[in-house]
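Anyone up for a design puzzle?
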C-alpha cells in the first residue's frame, strides 16, 4: 500500500480505501453473507487498507464494527455518515445526535474518525452549514468523532455546487466527490478548492456500473454518439484504445488508474464483494499513471461530458434497496 495524508486531518491513510456501500455493500448487496463481508474487510486490512467508508444507509456499520475487532482501534480510520434524511433542508438538527449515537452503537466504537453528512443537495447546503454543522461540532467536542465531512449527491449535483462551497467554508475537513473518465468536472469545480484549503478528498464513482458492466458502457456511449455528444466512431469499441501492452490491462484498471493520479485526489474508494476484484483493484490503484497519450486522449474525448455513469441505489438505514 502507498500512504498519503488526508488533507488537514493529518490522518495517514492508504490511497485505496474500502467503500462499504455502493451496489456491492461488501457483497451483501449482491447475495453475499456476513462471513463473506468480514473476509473482504480482513483481506483489505492484510493488503494495507486502513480507511473504511460506511454509512447508516448502507446497513454495513455493524459488520464493519465486528470485522475490525481483530485490529487495534488506532490502526483503522472509520468514516461513516448520517442518514439521508438529515441531509434534507427540513431536517431537525436535534435528531442528528441520536443518529450519530446509533452509528457508534452499530459500529461498537466510542468514536469514529470522520463523520459525514450524506449526499447533501445544493438546495440543502445552507441548512447543513448553519443548522447541522454547529450541532455536530458540539458532539465532536465530546469526542464522538474527530473530523467533520460532507458528501455530495453526485447524480443530482452535476456541477458539484455543494462541494464547491463546502471546500471553502472552513467547516468541513473532508469531502467525498464523484469523478471518473466520463465525469471529469471536479477537476475545475472541486480539486482546486480542496487543495487550496487543505480539505481531504475521498473519491467515489471511479468505476460504478458504467465501467464494471461492459454492455452498459457500450449502450451508454452509443446513445451519446447518437446524440452527437461523442464521435460516432467511438461507439463501437469506446475505450478499447486504453487496453494494450504497456497500457491498461482492462477498462476497470484504466478507470481506477485514471482517477488515482489526478492532482487533488487523495483516497480512491472502491467497492466490492469479490476477493479477486479487491486484489486487482488495489493493484490498479498502486500502478503508475496511464501512458500520457492515453491519459490525454481521455480528457480530449470525454472531458466535456458531465454526469455520465452516475447511478445510485436507494438505500434505507438498514441497507435495504427502496
Ligand atoms: N454520496 C455518497 O456518499 C456516496 C455515493 C456513492 C459511493 N459512496 C462511497 O464510495 C464507495 C465506492 O463506491 P463506488 O460505487 O463508487 O465504487 P466503484 O469501485 O466505483 O464501483 C464498484 C462496482 O464495480 C464493481 N467492481 C469493482 N471492482 C471490479 C472489478 N475489478 N471488475 C469488475 N467489476 C468491479 C463492484 O461489484 P463487485 O462486487 O462485483 O466487485 C461494484 O458494483 C461506496 O462503497 C461508498 O462507500 C458514497
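Challenge accepted. My sequence:
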Amino acid at each position: 500500500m502507498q500512504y498519503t495524508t488526508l488533507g488537514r486531518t493529518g490522518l495517514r491513510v492508504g490511497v485505496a480505501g474500502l467503500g462499504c456501500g455502493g451496489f456491492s455493500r461488501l457483497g451483501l448487496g449482491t447475495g453475499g453473507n456476513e462471513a463473506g463481508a468480514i473476509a473482504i474487510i480482513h483481506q483489505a486490512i492484510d493488503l494495507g487498507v486502513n480507511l473504511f467508508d460506511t454509512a447508516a444507509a448502507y446497513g454495513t456499520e455493524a459488520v464493519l464494527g465486528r470485522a475490525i475487532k481483530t485490529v487495534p482501534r488506532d490502526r483503522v480510520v472509520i468514516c461513516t455518515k448520517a442518514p439521508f434524511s438529515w441531509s434534507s433542508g427540513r431536517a431537525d438538527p436535534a435528531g442528528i445526535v441520536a443518529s450519530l449515537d446509533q452509528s457508534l452503537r452499530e459500529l461498537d466504537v466510542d468514536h469514529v474518525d470522520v463523520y459525514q453528512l450524506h449526499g447533501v443537495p445544493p438546495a440543502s447546503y445552507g441548512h447543513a452549514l448553519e443548522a447541522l454543522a454547529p450541532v455536530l461540532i458540539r458532539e465532536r467536542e465530546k469526542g464522538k468523532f474527530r473530523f467533520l465531512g460532507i458528501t455530495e449527491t453526485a447524480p443530482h449535483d452535476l456541477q458539484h455546487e455543494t462541494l464547491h462551497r463546502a471546500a471553502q467554508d472552513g467547516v468541513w475537513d473532508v469531502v467525498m466527490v464523484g469523478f471518473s473518465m466520463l465525469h471529469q468536472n471536479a477537476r475545475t469545480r472541486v480539486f482546486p478548492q480542496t487543495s487550496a484549503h487543505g480539505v481531504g478528498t475521498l473519491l467515489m464513482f471511479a468505476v460504478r456500473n458504467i465501467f464494471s458492466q461492459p454492455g452498459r458502457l457500450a449502450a451508454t456511449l452509443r446513445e451519446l454518439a447518437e446524440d452527437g455528444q461523442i464521435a460516432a466512431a467511438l461507439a463501437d469499441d469506446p475505450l478499447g484504445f486504453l487496453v494494450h501492452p504497456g497500457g491498461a490491462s482492462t477498462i476497470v484498471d484504466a478507470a481506477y488508474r485514471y482517477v488515482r493520479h489526478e492532482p487533488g485526489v487523495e483516497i480512491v474508494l472502491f467497492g466490492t464483494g469479490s476477493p479477486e476484484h479487491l486484489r486487482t483493484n488495489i493493484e490498479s490503484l498502486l500502478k503508475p499513471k496511464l501512458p500520457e497519450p492515453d491519459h490525454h486522449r481521455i480528457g480530449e474525448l470525454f472531458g466535456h461530458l458531465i454526469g455520465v455513469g452516475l447511478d445510485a441505489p436507494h438505500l434505507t438505514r438498514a441497507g435495504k434497496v427502496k
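A detail worth pointing out: The beta strands are 3-5, 12-14, 16-19, 51-53, 77-81, 112-120, 145-152, 174-178, 200-204, 267-271.
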